[in-house]
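Q: What does the predicted 3D structure of Membrane protein look like?
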Amino acid sequence: MRGRGALLGIAGIWLATRAAMLWMLVHDFFSSNVVRVEVTATYHNWYNVLVHWTLPHNDIMWQYPPAAAAIFLSPDLLPFLTYFQAFVALTVLCDGVVLLGLIRAARRSDGSMAGALVWLVTLPMMMATPFARYDIQVTLLAVFALLAMRHRPKAAGVIAGIGAMVKVWPLLTLLGTPRGKSTRDAVVAAVLSAAGLLAVFALLFKDTLGFLGNQGDRGVQIESLGGSALMAARLVDLWPGKVNFQYGAFEYVGPYVSTIARASLGLTVVGFLLLLLWRVKANRWSSATPFDAALCAIMVFTVTSRVISPQYMIWLLGLAAVCLTSKNTTQRPIAWLLVAANALTTLIFPICYGSDILTNSTLGTVLLCTRNGLLLYATVWSGVRLWKATVLPKSLPQQAREAELRAPQAV
């Protein structure tokens, strides 16, 4: 009965919080009109192009792999609703499916309800934003790829491959796949599913790879790590640049911007080389290692990006929730840092975006630099904890080494 009561309580909280998020979305609550425009204008405009069997490659804001088209066309599944209503309804449905997957994962022998509770509580902290972006759908693919990893690596690979054709980053969920047959099965399945999906969209749509040029031309968004450095320099009159709206985001233009953009790409490369080094060196896997490695990889991808849009927190919170479904995770403190970063993100967008972030006020600069500093710290600490838990020193005596390998992993 206690278990049933807990599930009823979770259902009640989900209904109440999601109703509040929907209310904020349809009313002008903290500039929700700015949040809604992504669906009502951008996504709807893409839909009007996609229904003619061509991708909107001439639109510089189109920066997504071809299978993203399926999500922007998905409101056709609910023809009795407007485009906006149908898109939001399907996004809420995906949110509920993610929660159900996390609850089911908690039933495993090493399972914990902490992951489901984190997803349940932290998503509403973002107010209306999650329901007016397509990142919940992408996060659903990444979450289910990870949850399938333990017993169905081929299925996990298929889901990750589909995710890669929707928004690239879900492919990184395969980084921590246990060595051997599981890795081979997952990687082959991911490659085949991604290639097959790409072939289908190449047959159905024109210019399926046109998004690559638009993505490569992006500059330094003001909310990125590099952007916060420029913001701080601009506040104290050490940098004379300005803000322009381009490529669907507010970006900095001026001296040193191209250098910072290249440095961001360089940091991304360095980060993934370190992740590959971890993959080679790791010699101890627990049931949570695939989850922990995926979170660390996505944090590296996010923090070193030239763009840290508010909805990127949905990815991080979703993967942190997956980590917390296992009692063996090393990422528990990282998850709480992400919860704090999520609260700051909501202050940045939408609450203070127009009044403080775009105007480069002292408050806006402090908020953004604090949030990005917290994300950077969490990323480094995530990698350190992952390394310490999975890379055993070769100098350990053989018997001690075998005992370490047999022992449960410390949380």
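A (community wiki): The structure tokens above were generated from the sequence. The two ends are 29 Å apart (CA to CA). The chain is about 65% helix and 5% strand.
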